Amino acid sequence: MTAFRAFRVEKTEDRQFPRSIVERDVAELPDGDLLVDVEFSSLNYKDGLSATGNPGVTRNFPHTPGIDAAGTVVESSSSDFAPGDAVIAIGFDLGMNTPGGFGQRIRIPAGWAIPLPDGLDARSSMILGTAGFTAALCVHKLEGAGMRPDGGPVLVTGATGGVGSIAVKLLAHLGYEVHAVTGKASSHDFLRSLGAREILSREDASKGVDRPLLKPRWGGAVDTVGGPILFNAIKALRYGASLAACGLVASPEIPATVFPFILRHVNLLGVDSVELPLAQKAEIWNKLAGPWKLDRLDELAEPLTLDTLSGAIDRILAGQMVGRGVVDLNG
Ligand SMILES: NC(=O)c1ccc[n+]([C@@H]2O[C@H](COP(=O)([O-])OP(=O)(O)OC[C@H]3O[C@@H](n4cnc5c(N)ncnc54)[C@H](OP(=O)(O)O)[C@@H]3O)[C@@H](O)[C@H]2O)c1
Question: Which CATH number characterizes residue 54's domain?
Fold first, then answer.
């Protein structure tokens, strides 16, 4: 089979970005070491940015987004992979300016692929996807900076979203007391089912923005939103604790002073899942397949197909998704 189905975004002269499902041929894919038959992908906020023409994500149209893909190698010119190997590809340029996982076939450099670890199947790896990987990377980095379950509650912002929901579940799994910030009053039960002990509204998390410091509460924090909520969380870190910053759905800005850093000895940790070297990516995936393996992942998955993706893209951009959208390429 050389023809395959793909979700495609065009760019019109008046800067509209219409979406459709098209038939493509593998001959149209870029050069690369591996041709992969994609079985599952997932929907991330960045895919929403790509599908609406955000130039920081995608410049070349027509384009097939999808920063995540899991599937089977069909052709390989690399000695590291053979036809039939199950692989995961996330990050690097996949779905940005390289046709991504919202197509049934991708062609990628071997250096973008990781063997699917024992302990995960293609679908569960994509319930995690970039969002789950990033949540785990945040926790990994926070623990590397000294975070421990007895160090106080850990705050997660944007908690019902992809990164947030998996961060809540993973931290609870590892024995942390998780406090979750959400804008969705209807999703408190969902967050409790993931293991959140306490739930704060976005308004609660935004209180005291004018104060240089807040009462120390958090033994660590995972922030997916940026802006005042991020810096409020830093101001309420306990002495020496850390916050991992990975997102910007509220704002790319940090309204900051140096006070928490010079008076509370706290750390702001940057987290990037895209260009992280492959060996470090594999280490995190192996944790997610082993000691950090999460049960009942299906409870946070919303099944999607190429035909239902467009509506879900609108919802993720509006901050309305709950959990993870998992795309079945053959659904
Ligand atoms: N650094 C990296 O490598 C990396 C990797 C993955 C993702 N990210 C970034 O992380 C962020 C989250 O990605 P995602 O895929 O998890 O997106 P998502 O599923 O849309 O989750 C984001 C969540 O943030 C909350 N939110 C939305 N708008 C908000 C606002 N204006 N103010 C405060 N909270 C708001 C919502 O949760 P509640 O309703 O529960 O508040 C929403 O569900 C994005 O900025 C993404 O680009 C970065």
Answer: 3.90.180.10
pLDDT in tens, 175-218: 999 999 999 999 999 999 999 999 999 999 999 999 999 999 99
80 and 136 assigned to the same domain: no
Closest-lying ligand 1 atom to the alpha carbon of residue 191: 40
C-beta of 272 in contact with ligand 1 (< 6 A): yes
CATH of the domain at 132: 3.40.50.720
CA of 85 to the centre of ligand 1 (A): 32
158 Cβ closer than 6 Å to some ligand 1 atom: yes
CB 131 within 8 A of CB 163: yes
Task: Flag whether pLDDT at 1 surpasses 70.
Answer: no
SS3 63: strand
Q: How do residues 115-146 score in pLDDT, each as one tens digit?
A: 999 999 999 999 999 999 999 999 999 999 99
Give the burial class of 145: count Cβ atoms within 10 A of its Cβ; 0-12 exposed, 13-18 middle, 19 or more buried. Answer: middle
83/182 same-domain check: no
Ligand 1 contact via 45 beta carbon (within 6 Å): yes
Number of independent structural domains in the chain: 2
260 & 303 share domain: no
Ligand 1: distance of its center to the CA of 111 in Å? 27
Structure-block tokens of residue 114: 């990781």
